[in-house]
Design brief:
Radius of gyration: 36 Å
Number of helices: 4
Structural class: mainly alpha
Distance between the termini: 119 Å
Strand order of the largest sheet: 1-2
Helix content: 40-55%
Mean pLDDT: 80
Length: about 150
């Protein structure tokens, strides 16, 4: 037994146990210049595929979601005229558009339009609620102020 095996054992090996020799792995043949060998392919059942597969060309079929565009339009309208009446549907449309875009795995775009629709709907709703309470307060103040007669 060597002194190194006794003082510095490998993890998982008892101290003082002689080290066994591992068989040497066969060296790979030198690679030839040129094209690399094609990797072996297997079908669903694990059988090797021996024929060449046809080349499939995918076209860019990405388009913008209609829900995203609708949410953006309704959200901008909620800023101008609608307040919460149009702001809440804009937010709901944008949530639906985000789900549709996520499920499409990149075929449907328009997430930026959906986000714009959500935030403009939210701001329009908050602004509409603020204006409603402002008008309610001004009417209450105008009614409660005594007139000089």
């Amino acid at each position: 037994m060597s002194k190194l095996a006794r003082t510095y054992p490998h993890p998982g090996r008892a101290v003082g146990v002689p080290q066994q020799r591992q068989p040497q792995a066969a060296t790979a043949p030198p690679r030839q210049r040129g094209s690399a060998p094609e990797p072996q392919r297997f079908d669903v059942f694990g059988n090797p595929i021996t024929t060449t597969l046809p080349v499939i060309v995918l076209q860019n079929t990405s388009y913008t979601s209609g829900l995203a565009i609708a949410s953006m339009v309704v959200g901008v309208l909620s800023l101008v005229v609608g307040g919460p009446i149009l702001g809440l549907p804009a937010m709901l449309l944008s949530i639906g558009a985000d789900r549709e875009i996520a499920r499409s795995h990149g075929k449907i775009g328009g997430s930026a339009s959906a986000r714009i629709g959500f935030w403009t709907g939210l701001v329009g709703s908050l602004f509409g609620v603020f204006v409603f309470f402002l008008v309610l307060t001004l009417v209450g103040v105008a009614v409660s102020v005594p007139t000089l007669e």
